[in-house]
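Session log. Operator J.P. requested a structure for one protein chain; no other inputs attached. Running the standard single-chain path with token output.
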Amino acid sequence: MSTAIVVGAGPNGLAAAVTLARRGVRVTVVESAGTIGGGTRSEELTVPGLTHDRCSAVHPLGVASPFLRGLDLERHGLVWRHPEVDLAHPLDGGRAAAMTRSLPDTVARLGEDGPAWRRLFGPLAGDFDKLLAEVLRPLPHLPRHPLPLARFGVRALQPAALLARRWRSVEARALFGGVAAHGFHPLHRPTTAAVGLMLIAAGHRYGWPVAAGGSQAIARALAADLAEHGGTVETGVTVRSLADLPPSDAVLLDLAPGAVAALAGDRLPPRVRRAYRRYRHGPGAFKLDLAVEGGIPWADPHSLRAGTVHLGGTLEEMAQAERDINRGRMPERPFVLVAQQYLADPARSRGDVHPVYSYAHVPHGYSGDATEHVLRQFERFAPGTRERVVATACTRADAWSRYNANYVGGDIATGAGTARQLVLRPRIAPDPYRTGIPGVFLCSAATPPGAGVHGMCGHNAARSALRFLTAK
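Structure written below.
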């Protein structure tokens, strides 16, 4: 029986381990933290009894992932719960745009821009499973579904700010721009439309759900599947060198490229070591968790029912804020992502006190306290928020790496969303998961297809490892 060690028990490390174990490989996962999950951990951060997600909170790509859907994780307690409104984007004066899983409903909400929204997202959502099968793989491959991929690719290469011109209203442009801003990259740059297109198409196909009980449920379900197939997980194990690991046939690293360079040292081929050290990390996130009595008093009715709310104002405001953070400047009005998971999953609350998740986009490594910046954005669209907050907890951008070493400088996407890294991460190679050391593979979100709780980085890396093991 072949053996493998996976370093890191985030969703990609666990996905790699499950893929290997299901093929008969004896797998051990080692994790430096005391709990598994990486970006899918959940804790009581503000007041006892309230469940907060530490990083990843809403999962359009998780519910859509062909890998996760193929595991039947419901047997291990994973349940997806959907809010009434998937996404709201409030604007000044009590106006707002909103998206639901229903394309006709969203089209109706957008008024005169509805037909243009349908023309763009109707085909993408209709062919979403075919499209996802293409984009969740490394770029160099022979497409099985060339037409959906081509339809997506022509638009995905555009800057988000340019693509948004197909809509006339401030509301529709802001709704798309807020989703595109998930990429932490200036919206006037090429390929920034890709994130908005994918996440909105996923929303119209599968919705933007949360995991019942917290995102930790995803990690627990993966670990249960791993155990069912003979794999084991050891927490509290810090690996500082490949030499620290016991002998095995394969090693998979759920780590950022810079950490792999440090871990492997001179064992890496020089060209790979240079590429890993040059790997770029993007802007950071300043996270503010709130315990709110009675919920956030939004001025618009859509946000009151939305699982996710984007606080960024108009497309132009968001474009300027994203430009600022990528230049190392802290904007006065940063883009803020808010999740109200309790609306779909009430068990996270205690009585009338609810957990509210938020983070602001800030410069890489930002060491300042952005609490006031975030609260001012709340007050802008939900006057009276401060009076309802009973407790807070924050994570500065420069502190994220203490929670998860992959989040260098607060980069929770494990890599800058540049055009090159969007398609050729972490380096130019026919097999981006191979490190150049025989039997050692990279399986973190620094590999294709990138950030998101979909498990495909780990699954793809494990498939590469299986090809290596078969050829031995």
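Operator note: The domain at 3-41+57-78+211-280+412-471 is CATH 3.50.50.60 (FAD/NAD(P)-binding domain).
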